[in-house]
Structures are given as structure tokens and as C-alpha cells.
Amino acid sequence: MTRPLSAATHLRLARPSLDLEAARRFYVDGLGLDLLHHSTDDAFAALLMMGLPGAAWHLELTRPHLHPVAPTPTPEDLLVLYLGTVPTPELVARLEEHGGRRVEAANPYWDRWGVTLEDPDGYRLVLCQRDWSH
């Protein structure tokens, strides 16, 4: 079977947001992602794309103009970043200062190996101290 995917296949994680500016503060000013694209004049929705230059992924948040979609995160909707080191207290504090809220993880694994924060829309970001190994 020929697989249509490769390690270089770009991944976009798209989610709705109620407040793109609050999300930008959390992910760009707090976490340190780059703002890759921001548009308020798209015909369908305001867009906020964030990531790292050259990465094969980006996070896109949308706010449809005519029919806003409310975020419906659950405690298991996680964006996990494998840092390979313990997240610094300064990073956690910066995320909290920029709209994040530290929460207990639904799965105790994440509390053992990292820090979980809710973004302004209630989605969870896990800063994991482990390396990703497959």
C-alpha cells in the first residue's frame, strides 16, 4: 500500500475561538509561537495562524463572521508539547499572565510529567517534560 503521508506532510490543527486576541496573547505572547497569519477580512471567518517557522504544523483559530461556533473543549482535548525538559516556572507564570489558567489534568499522567493549562477558550495545553519517543 502506498501511503499518501510522510513526515513532511503539513498538519493544521483548527479550532474555533470566541476571542482571537485573547488566544493570540496566550499562544504568541505567553507561549512564544510566531504569528504566521492573521486576517479579519476573510469571507468566512477571522483567522489566526500560529506556529514555528519551518515546522510541519500550525495552529489555526477561527471566528466565523455570520455563525460563530462556540468552542466545546473537554478535559481530554489536549495540545501536548514534548519539551524534553521541565517547564520553567517563568514560562508557566507567563502563560497565566497572558490568559491561561493552570488546571489539574484529567489523566494523572500529565500531572506527573508536566503542567496543564487551559487557554482562554478552555482548550488544554500540556507542557510535558518528556521527550517524544516513538
Concise description?
It comes from Deinococcus aerophilus. The protein has 134 residues and is α/β, with parallel strands linked by helices.
Characterize the structure shown.
- With 134 residues, this protein is of the alpha/beta class.
- The protein has 2 domains: 12-64, 2,3-Dihydroxybiphenyl 1,2-Dioxygenase, domain 1, CATH 3.10.180; 78-128, 2,3-Dihydroxybiphenyl 1,2-Dioxygenase, domain 1 (Roll).
- Helix content is 20%, strand content 34%.
- Strands 1-4-3-2 form a 4-stranded mixed sheet, with helices on one face. Strands 5-8-7-6 form a 4-stranded mixed sheet.
- A hairpin with a 5-residue loop joins strand 2 and strand 3 (45-51).
- Helix 1 (20-31) runs antiparallel to helix 2.
- The longest helix is centred in the N-terminal third of the chain and has 12 residues, at 20-31.
- It is globular, with a radius of gyration of 16 Å.
- The model has no long low-confidence stretch (mean pLDDT 94).
List the helices and strands and how they pair.
Elements: E1 11-16, H1 20-31, E2 34-39, E3 45-51, E4 57-64, E5 78-82, H2 89-97, E6 101-103, H3 108-113, E7 114-118, E8 124-128
Parallel strand pairs: 1-4, 5-8
Antiparallel strand pairs: 2-3, 3-4, 6-7, 7-8
Domain VOC: 7-130
InterPro entries: Glyas_Bleomycin-R_OHBP_Dase, VOC_core, YycE-like_C, YycE-like_N
Organism: Deinococcus aerophilus
